[in-house]
Specification:
7 strands; five-stranded antiparallel sheet; two-stranded antiparallel ribbon; about 45% strand
Length: about 120
């Protein structure tokens, strides 16, 4: 399920924009053969994360914009779907597609436009 919400307010002191978007993956079951067990691949290496969302808040006034964003990714079960494939799946505790080596960070962006 994907959700995307945005709202903007114009005021005498500038324009405020709020937003939230995210994805929730309920299940991704796979079964290799009819007699094999069913395995839910959500939150495993190389597959979708169960919950991922991002929120943002910005303020614009007289050519200036200040923007802040928060991103969240739910923890994953960093493991391969079957033990025989574990050595091929890069399961050493980090997966570049769904995580960052930086970890938690705070950032702020300020933009100024000239000449318009």
């Amino acid at each position: 399920m994907d959700v995307d919400l945005d709202y903007a307010i114009d005021s005498a002191r500038g324009k405020w924009t709020f937003g939230l978007n995210g994805t929730y993956t309920f299940v991704q079951d796979q079964q290799i053969t009819a007699t094999a067990p069913v395995f839910d691949f959500v939150n495993t290496v190389g597959n979708p994360i169960k919950l991922r969302w991002a929120g943002h808040l910005s303020w614009s006034f007289k050519g200036w914009t200040v923007l802040t964003t928060v991103n969240h990714t739910a923890p994953s079960r960093i493991r391969a779907p079957c033990r025989r494939a574990a050595w091929m799946s890069g399961t050493f505790g980090y997966e570049a597609a769904n995580a960052s080596l930086v970890g938690r960070q705070i950032s702020l962006q300020i933009v100024k436009r000239w000449g318009r």
